[in-house]
Amino acid sequence: MFHQAKWDEPLIIERSASGKKGHNPARPSDIERKIVGPEPWNNVPRTLLRNGVPPLPQVSEPEVVRHYTRLSQENFAVDLGIYPLGSCTMKYNPKVSEAIAQNPKLEKIHPEQDESTVQGILALLHRLDEFLAEITGMSRMSLQPVAGAAGEYLGALIMRAYHKSKGEFEQRREMIIPDSAHGTNPASAAMAGFNVVVVPSNSEGMVDLDALRKVAGPRTAGLMITNPNTLGIFEKNVLKIAEAVHDAGGLLYYDGANFNAILGKVRPGDMGFDIVHLNLHKTFATPHGGGGPGAGPVGVRKDLERFLPVPLVGFDGEKYFFDYDIPQSVGKVTAFHGNIGVLVRAYAYILSLGPDGLKAVAETAVLNTNYVLAKVLERTKFELPLSKRRKHEFVLSARKINEQTGVRALDIGKRMLDWGLHSPTVYFPQIVEEAMMVEAPETESLRDLDELVEAFVQAGKEAETDPEKLRSAPHHTSVGRIDEVKASHPKTLTLRWSNPKLSG
Amino acid sequence: MATFDHPFLPNAGAPIRKMMLDAIGVASIDELYSDIPTQVRTNRPLKVDWLPSEQEVKSHVERMLAENKSAADIPVFLGAGIYNHYLPAAVKAILARTEFQTSYTPYQAEISQGILQSLFEFQSMIADLTQMDAVNSSLYDGSTALGEAARMACRATGRKKILVPHSLHPAKFSVLKNYAEPAGIGLETFNYDKGTGGLDSADLQSKVDRDTAAVYCEVPSFFGILDPEVANVPSICHLKGALSIVGFDPVSLGGLKPPGEYGSDIVIAEGQSISTEMNFGGPALGIIGCRGENLIRQLPGRLIGMTTTLDGKERAFSMVLQTREQHIRREKATSNICTNEALFAIGAAAYLSLLGPQGLRQLFESILVKTNYAIKMLSEIPGVVVPRFIGPHYQEFVVSFKGAKGTLARLNKSLLSHGVHGGKSLVKDFPELGESALFCVTEVHSTEAIDKLRLLTEKLLGA
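Output (structure tokens, whole complex):
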């Protein structure tokens, strides 16, 4: 039976004791000291001089390593088991990509080095740009955005620049977003100064075309959409959606969060999209680090290339160079060239799979997900609202179970943790009651998928026979059910160890 | 439909695929895609390369990267936001734990205590170092942290003007503009003092007014100046109801006063130097912290809090104040940020724990000594003005070269051919400084490397 490690590990500060240290930093040489003189600290203005030493824990190297190793054991990860978190595409991260990234020729290059010294990485980035453009059906990519939401923000900035260039920005302030969209879409649009107009889903869980046509017009800047959408349903009317938005003078933005379903099968460019971002930490298997890093390259159609951030990587037939010659560029969205470490891993991933492999990734992800879906529907009371055709993910409703037993989707998710699985995404998208969003990436074996199915079956049974077991779950994780209300309550909010309560 | 066996794809082979298709009740994979209109389907193989063995993939990329010259090959005197520091082996070992590396955002707190506690420790250490009430669990990098800080200050004050130093890194300024302009935030710059390189107090004071949401300053500045005037900026701001944003260098806080101690309201930093290698500039680590509940509620990104289990018996950690965030608040969120740089926040927590109070202070001192050594050495070269500014320096300094236009470019090229990478040219971005460059020295620059820079510079300028 699964039992997560439990170390009762104290805070690192609680391991601190006077006189211990975990690292000896390099000291200046004798000659340096001699030349600079005995009082180097006189070079620090008194008003900026720290009084004493900084308040940090005093711990030895073995204690630090043991502390964080123990904490790592109290953490679920793709390397430990299936992570069916819908819309997050938590697939296995190939070790070859890791091995490749641990290279001083990558780790120890500085972003402002002379171009002649970084021809290798520039060549790689140039090739990656070509690969991703081909994969998405776009003309050119910017590799600068460091996350999906950063890509969305750049997309929205490009829309601003495009409409400004046509003198229409002042009137085109509306961004249309389906009600099933990820929260980042409306947040990115709003941050970029657009008003969000929500378009409802129809009875099949797809964008309601009539409703879209009603809101699309002279005020429309664009539409942001995933396809397949967050329900895992392919928007089969995508060409009509594109037509409606383009006819209104708007631009069509593809959110790549769900691209894993159609990799090598459908290209956003061929569906009429003008701007696309990819989540390399999802589709291209780079590790997500407990929340980051990621990378969110953005591709555009030919006539929007003029707005891309500077610099792009160019090639003059002999050497690679940073191309700053983009007169209408929106500028920069991050200080340097993007999350290079992530980009290199993604490049290795593409090479590892090639054209047939990438297509097999999507097909197998869809196969895996539909397998789990078929088995769960066959063996449990979970319902599948809206269209029955799903791609890489599906959204179940635990509504019926909730009505009959009082057990909620949240409880079921927590109970699944007890079996060494991660919970599906719960309560998203908001258009499904008691939602449980499941994605079974292509890297999961049949045995893992069967375990996931068994978890739904078992949870369904327990809801009827022993609902308390679910409501009090999890039982086998490092800690039991957490008091999240207390965690955020102003009276008990604790954001740092040295100040247990905020004064308010 | 042909099948494809691959080490990453356990179910792609023909027999398993067939069995699963049967279980689903479809005849083929194509049937699972039959709802996709034929006009949009890709009916040809993608034009991307493929290398059939892992060994080939690895050596192919290695061969490409071998074309680079790195700071492991030659001394590189570049800084300007990304720094080459020595990363302790223990930090690398901790970051290599795949339980951290291959996990997602800790939405399910009970099974993710490792990430959550580590991030809480990161928040606590940075808060203690800077004397802030709260620090979030990371943003993308220092430049976007500045953008978020500016927006935050404007939301909190209801004002729309941000003052930044004229000496701000131009790339950072460009990112800031992209965060500011769509929110209707105006950016104005204040001058640096031509002699000290610090801020021009009179110019700044004349520009802070009742429309000013915040003033941004950096310690050390882009020119590497430890400017004592920065400590007075918070009170200048507060007199006019504006906020003070201070950009700090994490290692420098081993010797420098925490910005919170001189009244700063929001602090930001680029944390790459204490968490990960340079990697051509990314991934980096955006740090942001603030004081007071009003500002905490305006913080972007994830915050981790310490709480207990429901039964009250055990300490536990979870994400808190999520109603600020995009997955709950959508277009009303404080930011669109979702993916961040959590892994490197853990790296920073490990780094700061290892160095501890004495180690961080010692490291500051080492860099301080080496910076001043390099300045002294270069100052002996005829035709070189260093430091260009008379203010005190840490880690970076501006070097000006007498001579015609192109002197610096020629020198840098020659240095490179002799196996040394010179400083960052300021010729284009700061034409008023003439033939000048920004040099950076950290603990990784040996005496020999600095001496080599000096000897070569002298020789090449004389040639």
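Chain B has a mean pLDDT of 96.
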